[in-house]
Amino acid sequence: MTAQTATAAPALKEWPLWEVFVRSKQGLEHKHCGSLHAADAAQALNMARDVYTRRQEGVSIWVVPSKAITASNPDDKGTLFDPAADKVYRHPTFYDIPEEVGHM
Amino acid sequence: MNAVLETPQASTVTTPVSYLLHLADNAVVLGQRNAEWCGHGPILEEDLALANMGLDLIGQARLLYSQAADQLGNGATEDSLAYFRDVPDFRNFTLLELPHHSPLVGYAHSNLDYATTTVRNFLYSAYMVPLWSQLQHAADPGLASIAAKSLKEASYHLRHSRDWLVRLGDGTAESHDRAQAALAHLMPYTQEYWTFTALEKEAADAGVAIDGTQLAADWNALVEDALSEATLHRPAPGGYVTQGKLGHHSEHLGFLLAEMQSLARAHPGAAW
């Protein structure tokens, strides 16, 4: 009992969290659609299929361990994003686009 | 030798109603059973998965009942076949009507034992994947197209239940014991898969050819492979051979049908 339990991976009290990305159509990007708990990647894929693609939403699924994602700190919002607020010239709205070009 | 003689006479083969009902009743009864987990799943994701798979099965049943109703005529519909037939008329395997626990688990602990659910879904989908694979080439085009659609669903049911079988069998001491107990309880019921009865004979005589030897070989290979990965041992063969497919059912089917049929019988012809 001692030797085996000492080397075995510790039992998880709670399954890790996974972020789910679904590609809705060939050629489009995968989009984040939610998260779920699963014991491992294979199970996370199966569960993502059942939870997020029940209504024909997808042609491909990615799952990523949530802990692999490095997120910006909400407290840094001012420093990171506010400087962009008064620089309207960065928006491509000062050009006249010929109609023939269509959607850009 | 003679290619002409070996070509099945496509479009002239009609699957006997009894065999369509057997396939449909299997699907509707297991679909109804698995729907009992709705709102009670061990985790949210499994709750949704079981409801999904229950709906897949009920969808298969609808297609099969519709074809049977067309052949029966005389006002039969998919609803009349699902909701207005009684226990002795149902042709499903006894395995599929059993509750989600073995007699020894008992109500005191829980009347929903996930190991029992998992093992049953595995033993059934491991049978349906090779069966639908054969039937998608059936000489009856209606049945062949239902089989081709159902094969994709059954393949996912197999993948899902096999995954859980391995996780439970090769999991903790308790999950292993419960999976092993469920296997000991349910495996004898699979003997019904292999008896050649009036049901199979009628189908074979009508030209719905099923290679039983191949089917059993495919099922055994799937079962052996999964059990070995799950570190579960296969119970010794034997025990009572059930005959649900001939209409001789356990006491459990009546309760299941009562719940499933009561609304339709209380309001016959209702639409919503």
Describe this structure in words.
The complex is a heterodimer of chains A (104) and B (272). Helix content of chain A is 22%, strand content 20%. Chain A is an alpha+beta fold and 104 residues long. Chain A has a single domain, classed as Phenylacetic acid degradation B (Ubiquitin-like (UB roll)), CATH 3.10.20. Chain A has a three-stranded antiparallel sheet, with helices on one face. Chain A is flat, with a radius of gyration of 22 Å. Chain B has eleven helices and no strands. The interface between A and B is medium-sized, with 13 and 13 residues.
Short description:
Chain A has 104 residues and is an alpha+beta fold. Chain A has helices at residues 2-7, 41-52, 77-81, and strands at residues 17-23, 30-37, 60-65.
Properties at a glance:
heterodimer; A: 104 residues; alpha+beta; Ubiquitin-like (UB roll); three-stranded antiparallel β-sheet; 20% strand; flat; disordered N terminus; B: 272 residues; mainly alpha; Ferritin; 11 helices; 62% helix; globular
SSE layout:
The complex is a heterodimer of chains A (104) and B (272).
Chain A lengths: L1 H6 L9 E7 L6 E8 L3 H12 L7 E6 L11 H5 L23
Antiparallel strand pairs in A: 1-2, 1-3
Chain B lengths: L2 H4 L10 H19 L8 H29 L5 H6 L22 H4 L4 H22 L5 H29 L3 H14 L11 H9 L5 H18 L22 H15 L6
Helix pairs in contact in B: 2-3, 3-7, 6-7, 6-8, 6-10, 7-8
User: How many structural units, i.e. domains of chain B?
Assistant: 1
Quote the average pLDDT of chain A. Answer: 84
Give me the CATH fold name of chain B: Ferritin
Weakly predicted, low-confidence segments of chain A: 1-6
